[in-house]
Amino acid sequence: MGEYLNYIVYVAVFIAGLAISWFIVGKWINKKRKVRLIWTLAITPVLSLCLYLIMVMIIIFAVSYYPKKKFDETGWKENIEERYIYASDIVNSELLLGKTKEEVVTILGNEYSTWNKSYASYEIGHIPGMFNIDPSFLYIELTSGIVTNVSVH
């Protein structure tokens, strides 16, 4: 919840900054009668479009955001639907590289989706995103029974 509160504060400060700058420009325009018509007909639609695009980007970011956490065996094993929060740490830290099947099962558990000679996969849930409706998987590539690559698909 703390991460979301930070973004709400950033958005509020950004909107307050826009409002103050528009207020100052508006006061200046009120002193100049000829400029007021130009402002109304030309600049207002452009600024409205910019504000609309900014709001759309904020919404897309808010829908796609999720916290990324350092890998925790207990959290991984208890919350199957939200394993995606640990997936990037598993990949980036190369936690599984060079390990055998037994070592991987000890770390990640035996709730894998697929396990054969060349690869294994663990379901990590639905990664938040605009049009992301399919579950994602942590793919583990094996060569001669040893982990050689880990990725998220």
Distance between the termini: 27 Å
Estimated structural class: alpha+beta
Helices, by number, come to 5
Helix content: 55-70%
Number of strands: 4
| SSE succession | HHHHHEEEE
Strand order of the largest sheet: 1-2-3-4
Rg result:
25 Å
Shape: rod-shaped
Poorly predicted regions: none
Largest sheet: 4 strands, antiparallel
Strand content: 15-25%
Mean pLDDT over all positions: 84
Please provide a written account of the structure.
The chain is built from 5 helices and 4 strands, in the order H-H-H-H-H-E-E-E-E. The relative contact order is 0.10. The two termini are 27 Å apart. A 4-stranded antiparallel beta sheet has the order 1-2-3-4, with helices on one face. The radius of gyration is 25 Å and the shape is rod-shaped. The longest helix is centred in the first third of the chain and has 32 residues, at 33-64. The chain has helices at residues 2-31, 33-64, 73-78, 84-92, 101-108, and strands spanning 114-115, 119-125, 136-143, 146-152. A hairpin with a 3-residue loop joins strand 1 (114-115) and strand 2 (119-125). Helix 1 (2-31) packs antiparallel against helix 2. The protein is an alpha+beta fold.
